């Protein structure tokens, strides 16, 4: 039995504004959950929700995770870009070359995302969120494959990718060199133990795979904060 990926969480200076932006881009439903705060529920096979958590910290440097959004045609790609810009996104330069077909944008709080060209074969069978593209090592790709029970769908030149057997986005890791981590990541995963599972038993299993307990100043009960082998934080939450 393995963990379930239940949410991708954003630290946000203005959670409501950021949630409204992503709800508009993705076409997902926004709900106010007493436990989770502002949450977006998927309208497709993505398989996890998005949560927006308040923080006073400002964004400092590129994120470890970003969305790769797919497109079906050049017109569709431009429509996605235009919609995102209308909702508050902006064009950014992260060193992409003019001949590359993807378009790099940032949401209203500077979180990077890409709108991918329509002939991208790697994401051809994926939905609108084609991938969660991560900066990370081959080791961390192997860790997350074991943690979630998702098979490797790419393992070449120290680059890895996994995908749920039920479909949805791929999660990819670009391999070395990995960015030096400075402070807490702005995006993190929330995991839940398997159905009817025990939280502590799942924490112990993840530790056996290479995760470590960590303290990011969280308060309250109901979750355990850990870090993967690259030091990226994630939470193990109690089952509902």
From TrEMBL:
Transmembrane segments: none annotated. Signal peptide: none annotated. Pfam families: Glyoxalase_6. Residues 4-118, 125-239 form the VOC domain. InterPro entries: Glyas_Bleomycin-R_OHBP_Dase (IPR029068), Glyoxalase_6 (IPR041581), VOC_core (IPR037523). It comes from the Bacteria. CDD domains: VOC. This is VOC family protein. It comes from Nonomuraea purpurea. The lineage of its organism: Bacteria, Bacillati, Actinomycetota, Actinomycetes, Streptosporangiales.
